[in-house]
Specification:
It is built from two helices and five strands; from the N terminus they run H-E-E-E-H-E-E. The chain has helices at 3-18, 67-81; strands spanning 22-30, 33-41, 44-52, 88-96, 105-111.
Length: 113
């Protein structure tokens, strides 16, 4: 991961903590890919994707969360949840166009599974 990507994840993890979520894991990897942040929001597990895009020539941060990316996130989350079948969960996306806390767009429950 590049330095800007790590800083974006650090910023988003702090934002989540500030909102009362407990960050459980960062960069959780499995055969389907990686989940940037896994947090607990009360009784709900939150699988969060962090997207930083400085240049919108090839689409912004929101456009980079494609159907294929969502499918990989869902598959990875299913593996994470394998030992926790009764756990509620949601998928959040945190979008940044620059590394500033005030510039983070946090889409809670951005897509279903």
């Amino acid at each position: 991961m590049n330095r800007a990507g790590k800083r974006a994840e650090d910023l988003c993890a702090e934002l989540m903590r500030g909102a009362g979520l407990e960050v459980l894991a960062r960069n959780w990897r499995c055969r389907h890919g990686e989940i940037d942040l896994i947090a607990r929001d009360g009784a709900t597990l939150v699988f969060a994707e962090v997207r930083l895009r400085h240049d919108e020539r090839y689409g912004g941060a929101a456009e980079s969360v494609t159907g294929a990316k969502r499918a990989r996130l869902v598959a990875a989350a299913q593996l994470y949840l394998a030992g926790r079948p009764e756990t509620d969960c949601r998928f959040d996306v945190l979008l940044l166009d620059r590394l500033e806390a005030g510039r983070v767009r946090w889409l809670r429950n951005a897509f279903g599974a």
